[in-house]
Amino acid sequence: MIRDIAFRLVLAGAAALAAAPGGARANPWLERCFDPEAAPAALAENCRRAVEAGGLSARRQAMAWTNMGVGLAELGRHGDAIAAFDAAERADPGYAGLYVKRAISNEARGRVRDALADFARALELAPGDRTALMGRGAMLLRRGVADRALEDFRAVLARDPADADARFNAGLALAALGKADEAEAAFSRVIADAPGDADAWLERGRVRALRDPRAALADFDRAIALAPERPAGWLARAALRERLGDDEGALADWRRAFELGAQDPALLERIRRLGG
Questions:
Q1: What does the DSSP assignment read for 124-182?
Q2: In the Cβ-directed half-sphere of 140, how many Cα atoms lie within 13 Å?
Q3: Full residue range of the structural domain in which residue 262 is found
Q4: 89: in domain
Q5: CATH code, domain with 95
Q6: pTM for the whole thing?
Q7: Range of weakest confidence among 35-39, 177-181, 214-218, 235-239
Q8: Which of 244, 276, 245 shows the shortest CA–CA distance to 257?
Q9: CA spacing 20 to 30 A to 117: which of 40, 181, 265, 269?
Q10: More confident residue, 12 or 98
Q11: What average pLDDT does the segment 72-99 reach?
Q12: Structural domain contains residue 133
């Protein structure tokens, strides 16, 4: 699973700005608009009221409109969210945070070209910004453009080699590009830094499955031990066990994945074929 950015990354900085002298006093809705604990509907409504109450600088208007968009996007109303982000741009075109958020909603609406333009604008305003690079890289990777995605993840790692999410995503991109050795090394580094990262064990196992199936099984075992409630580990181990001729073990894993909520019709067919 690709490690993506979160909408609410903008709110921590916004809260600090709202707390600046005179901010909340001049506009009582401002602090509520920048509350990271607010439910999406409340966030959108509080920010609407903050904008309507007035008395905001151009930057604060842009931040309020952006947070309104965040709330609307979290409600699945990406069209309305984009309209809010557009208003933020009109208020302060130099506010980099709005472009990353609008990019996410544009992608959700299938407007990939617009999303790419937004990420590019964010990076013009804030060169090397981690959120924009990670967001663009994740979007590109989802769309199969692994080489360009890898460039973004490597740009993040150039600034912070300890960024585990960037290294994990780089591993996914490398695997998609068929660079198994480099992908395995990336996941191994994540595991070395965070031995409890079940996803890293799972993805390293997938990379190893064709080259070293026994090592892959050990990785899948560890992924399942760390996150037994997730079907993905059981599915991966079942497929490898079946390939290795362990039909009994594969059947047990297929069944467990089904019990955990995996509903792929091919899964039921495998269970029936193996006598389940």
A1: HHSTT-HHHHHHHHHHHHHTT-HHHHHHHHHHHHHH-TT-HHHHHHHHHHHHHTT-HHH
A2: 22
A3: 228-275
A4: yes
A5: 1.25.40
A6: 0.89
A7: 35-39
A8: 276
A9: 40
A10: 98
A11: 97
A12: yes
